[in-house]
Amino acid sequence: MKQEWQGRDRHVGYEQAFERAERDPEGFWMNAARALDWITKPTCAHDPATDTWFPDGTLNTCANAVDRHVAAGHGDRVALIHESPITGHTTSFTYGELLDRVARTAGMLASGGVKKGDRIVIYMPMVPEAVFGMLACARIGAIHSVVFGGFAAPELAKRIEDSQPVAVLTASCGLEPGRTIAYKPLLDRAIELSAHKPAACFVLQREQLRCDLVPGRDRDWQTACDAAAAVDPVPVASADPLYILYTSGTTGTPKGVVRDNGGHATALAWSMAHIYGIGAGDVFWAASDIGWVVGHSYIVYGPLLAGATTILFEGKPVGTPDAGIFWRIVDRHRVKALFTAPTAIRAIRRADPDGEFIAQASLDSLSALFLAGERADPDTLLWIAAKLGKPVIDHWWQTELGWPAIATCFGLGETRIKPGSAGRAVPGYRFKVKDEAGADAAPGTVGTLLIEQPLPPGNFRALWNKPERFREGFVDFAGHYTTGDAGMIDDDGFIHIMGRTDDIINVAGHRLSTGQMEEVVANHPAVIECAVVGAADELKGEMAVAFVVTRAGTADLPTVKQEIVRMIRDDIGAIASPRDVLFTDALPKTRSGKVLRNLLRAILNGQELVVPQTIEDAGVIEALVALAAPGSAPKNTV
Ligand code: COA
Ligand code: AMP
């Protein structure tokens, strides 16, 4: 039996790994690439001329995530566990079963005319077929674009229009606590809205709610899959796109982050061993959704590339059925590392403040809890660390990067954390903080957080359809990648994230654009102007609040408010529901007409107000403070 390559040098600590990646990135990443099976082995790691990783290497990501584990004799090892407290079902697939399902799903795609390089949109709930679909695309070199199931039809339409898929994979419904969401009408509406029409839709019929199929376009997933022959993996170039994942930018148009194959697989395999301390046969659980980057990297590709067992969770941290579900799953499947968003822990704490459910479970298998997606407030982090008695590790990354850039590298033996900091730079990443004048900020000083180029493998190099936007939108005059976050590096090299510098907010770990919400609110006929900002929220970290100026004579504000909330839910999705809509006579602006969103945010959060000299009308601020400040009774909210 072939010895499994764990991709981990057990004699190297964090400092050495960091230094090695800094001094000899070629050697460091060529060594990391040995964790994969290459069809053509790369002869070099990075090509500066094209900024590609492993430029002459070819491989197949699906073969690395599935086939090779079976070939190495581990076909009986559990690859995927679907835990669905919403339906009451737990289903497991061994690597051998996963291979069979994925190869036949690839056959189903091929029967629909899908070829290498074609795009496939996946709009699905958290069911195993969604994972089969992603891996099947990778298998035949098609480029998947998974759209989070919580997005409404217009958002799905934007992604269909931009990525121009040949086919869409979907299901008849998604299940949220207490309600069944019919996906098919949302997909039908999105295709109606989009100028691009996919040729085929494969529809998984779920027993909770079946749907009608459009003749000539829609095909029943099960029937098509049963009729399909298994398809082998095809070789793709390392730099060929594996997937597109749309994420919020500052405008209403989402950005299609493009991920490559070779750099991505190398980086994820390295991270599983050295950040999470996970190897073949371990059980890893990222309690996220496949619609987000965390789901792509750490529900699907990362754990499977490592030969580990991954858990796909169709439920919520609380209410399905209670706040003990996380700990019972850890106990039942002997989970070694759990990854979730701080919001989930805040929700659990609210429901189980004394940690009674935690005490009831046997958590001896758990080595650490990892948190990301939003700031881990020290209070929450220390609470859960005390209740679990295990290391709790905050770490920071973004859709654009694809894997953690700031962390405590637990797999390298690090456990030192500083609550309030996301950790230190992960080997391969070189961070800088610049002040407003563009100079290097002194340690301990907050500024714009940048990463020196070239970015390590796995990070994005381009946006789909807009290759030039990488340079225009993300790279500063000195060639650094601008993260969009403000941060500070302390004397010990720990990096503290202070929040976004743009119009992006984080609601329950979900990245949303307030600019996009403003575009929706401004479409209401009674609205003259509006500004949407993020207000601090005890549970979700942040929630949107809309400040709205209505046309003279608008009388029925309660109805306007209801309509605005409805428009945001219908156009973007329920996850973007604003916490409040506040009606005001005017918005605070500079003399040049720029809306002072920072000031609105400070008013909402009860922070000290720094009012610029250039403000047009100081009276506006007084009125807004009375309207929105915490503790004050909102006067004209409805
Ligand atoms: N499909 C359809 N609708 C969805 C959805 C999906 N996949 N996910 C969420 N929604 C809907 C919800 O049903 C809810 O609708 P409602 O306003 O009609 O009730 C709305 O979007 C907001 O959902 P959510 O953000 O999940 O809030 P919640 O109040 O239902 O639950 C928490 C609160 C804290 C339990 C939940 O936000 C949570 O689990 N957070 C952790 C998030 C996480 O893991 N993020 C991953 C980043 S690593
Ligand atoms: P996303 O692209 O959805 O992963 O969101 C990325 C953004 O989420 C980052 O730019 C940060 O603003 C925020 N974020 C992610 N992880 C953390 C963290 N550990 N601490 C603070 N903010 C975080």
UniProtKB/TrEMBL annotation:
<dbReference type="Pfam" id="PF13193">
    <property type="entry name" value="AMP-binding_C"/>
</dbReference>
<dbReference type="InterPro" id="IPR045851">
    <property type="entry name" value="AMP-bd_C_sf"/>
</dbReference>
<feature type="domain" description="AMP-dependent synthetase/ligase">
    <location>
        <begin position="69"/>
        <end position="454"/>
    </location>
</feature>
<dbReference type="InterPro" id="IPR032387">
    <property type="entry name" value="ACAS_N"/>
</dbReference>
<dbReference type="InterPro" id="IPR025110">
    <property type="entry name" value="AMP-bd_C"/>
</dbReference>
<dbReference type="InterPro" id="IPR000873">
    <property type="entry name" value="AMP-dep_synth/lig_dom"/>
</dbReference>
<dbReference type="Pfam" id="PF00501">
    <property type="entry name" value="AMP-binding"/>
</dbReference>
<dbReference type="InterPro" id="IPR020845">
    <property type="entry name" value="AMP-binding_CS"/>
</dbReference>
<dbReference type="InterPro" id="IPR042099">
    <property type="entry name" value="ANL_N_sf"/>
</dbReference>
<comment type="similarity">
    <text>Belongs to the ATP-dependent AMP-binding enzyme family.</text>
</comment>
<dbReference type="Pfam" id="PF16177">
    <property type="entry name" value="ACAS_N"/>
</dbReference>
<protein>
    <submittedName>
        <fullName>Propionyl-CoA synthetase</fullName>
        <ecNumber>6.2.1.17</ecNumber>
    </submittedName>
</protein>
<feature type="domain" description="AMP-binding enzyme C-terminal">
    <location>
        <begin position="517"/>
        <end position="594"/>
    </location>
</feature>
<keyword id="KW-0436">Ligase</keyword>
<dbReference type="GO" id="GO:0050218">
    <property type="term" value="F:propionate-CoA ligase activity"/>
</dbReference>
<feature type="domain" description="Acetyl-coenzyme A synthetase N-terminal">
    <location>
        <begin position="14"/>
        <end position="65"/>
    </location>
</feature>
